[in-house]
Design brief:
Layout lengths: L12 E4 L2 E4 L5 E3 L8 H39 L5 H34 L1 H6 L5 H14 L1 H16 L9 H22 L3 H20 L7 H8 L4 H9 L7 H30 L2
Antiparallel strand pairs: 1-2, 2-3
């Protein structure tokens, strides 16, 4: 009767501390841990952890995003007097705060997390990958709420627009934030280097600036088609429509529904990118 070492058997697992390593695919399974946490409790835990961790570092950047959007509106005030163009400028500048935090900063965060090996920490936790992506995205999007409202109020006063329907931002911020955060997370996780993730986040925010703030009627036809591909466009258009004396709420709901669909798709791509990056 002979004894064969375990490491030469196909698919054999080797004990290593508190974890078990599969010899075939190199994936790690937690040993001694309880069953995998459910999505919503895990999401809430990740959200609270990210919110407390990023509070001190992100608040100054939120002021930068708000002042940037207000400065853009002041500059556009010398070019745009009122009407539909003023509505586009105010709506686009307000959503730009969301783009700065949810797209640009989240791309940098996940890019640095991947480069520093921080994904290994989350991979050892019994939480679904979707909870990690959604929790981080929700935490970053939460920082945009005060800045977006401040920008919208300042823009309405600056261009003489009504403040009546600013409550629509309660729907626009999470939906546009989800779409942009999913895109930002995907860019950060798919970029091979953190510098490239930062560059892609900056380019995405520049696209949100140019295609979201500038009145669409002044853009070339080809650029208008590119504007339709930007996830935040539908949130901007939904907010813009509410400045009318008698808003078409049916169109507003359609734009919000499209923004929600894009958000689900972008977060699904970000979750796939997280799984792909975590196993490498």
């Amino acid at each position: 009767m002979s004894v064969v070492p375990a490491e030469v058997l196909p698919g054999a697992a080797r004990a290593n501390g508190n974890s078990v390593v599969d010899a075939e695919d190199g994936t790690r399974a937690a040993a001694g841990l309880g069953p995998r946490a459910r999505l919503w409790p895990a999401l809430a835990a990740v959200y609270r952890a990210q919110l407390s961790r990023a509070r001190v570092a992100r608040i100054p950047l939120l002021f930068v995003a708000t002042f940037q959007s207000i400065g853009i509106m002041v500059l556009m005030r010398g070019v745009v007097d009122g009407g539909g163009e003023a509505r586009s400028v105010v709506a686009g500048s307000s959503v730009l705060v969301v783009a700065f935090v949810a797209l640009n900063l989240l791309a940098q965060y996940f890019g640095q997390l991947r480069a520093s090996g921080g994904l290994d920490h989350y991979a050892t936790l019994p939480v679904p990958p979707a909870a990690v992506v959604l929790g981080a995205a929700a935490a970053y999007a939460s920082f945009t709420v005060p800045g977006t409202f401040v920008t919208a109020v300042v823009g309405c006063v600056l261009f003489g627009l009504p403040l009546t329907h600013l409550w629509i931002l309660i729907a626009v911020i999470p939906l546009a934030g989800a779409a942009l955060a999913g895109l930002g997370a995907a860019l950060g996780l798919l970029a091979p280097r953190p510098e490239l993730a930062t560059l892609l986040g900056q380019l995405g925010m520049s696209a949100a600036l140019l295609l979201g703030v500038l009145p669409p009627d002044r853009l070339p036809t080809v650029v208008q088609y590119a504007r339709d591909l930007l996830p935040s466009t539908y949130g901007v258009e939904a907010f813009e429509l509410t400045f009318a004396a008698d808003p078409d709420w049916g169109v507003v709901l359609i734009d919000l529904a499209v923004c929600a669909g894009v958000g689900v798709a972008s977060l699904a791509v970000a979750t796939w990118a997280y799984r792909r990056a975590a196993v490498r």
